[in-house]
Fold this protein.
Amino acid sequence: MGAPGSGKGTQAQHLVSRYGIPHVSTGDILRKEQQQGTALGLRAKQIMESGGYVDDATMIGMIRNRLLQPDAANGFILDGFPRTVAQAEALAKLLIEIESPLDAVLLFEVNNEQLVKRLSGRRVCEFCKKVFNVHTAPPSVPPECVDGRTEHQVVQRADDSEDTVRARLRKYEEMTRRPVSGFYSYTGLMRTVDAEGDIDAVTQRMFDTLAAGSGKKTAPAKQKKRAAVRRAKARKAVKKVRRVIRKLAKKVAVKRSAAQPARKAKRKSVRKPARRPAARARRKSKR
Ligand SMILES: [Zn+2]
């Protein structure tokens, strides 16, 4: 997990090379399913073309397909999912079903103003999509990314304007960081990584956090053994995650009933008088 601009995608690549497991990003999955013209891919395409967001059921179906590929048998790095508590719950159910529980949830934290600076400083070549940033030293933004080729104009995308960036970060904070990290803190899987400053230093902190969490480093030779242990752990995790889901479901139920007192009151007034006198009458007649 991490805000846009937190560098989690870059760090995911370091995890790929260290652990030899695939980087599973929802963006890549969407593109691939659409290219292959699968039923899920076509559904997602229709939704996106009409300007909507791909629903959780479609997304989780695609993630399921991806995680069942042979290269993910020894593990995977999930990037960009879950973004909401509903997605986190759907993912928990999926991982129970395929007996592949999470080992850790990494949260990359960067100061908000730093993120605004990073993102609003981004410039992209319109032609080849190469990315530059006005805040790197020295600033690396040429007018054209290939000298003398006017089609290679380096511009700021609308998505990277300061107002849009702030709106994106607010949405991340409200929909993702606060609720989803809350969800995972129940499971004891959360690891927070200070993602400010030098990229290599962030990578080092990430590996340190993971090593501290598990108490040991994973050599590639141990991965098969770990897969077996993983399946054994899955059964234990099933119970734990179900407990968490039940807890959250209760919370949501409490919130809902607080938000809709009118409806609840109405239900009470309709049902209870109808039942109780009947029950009382029955009890009386027994006596
Ligand atoms: Zn270019």
In short: The chain has ten helices and seven strands.
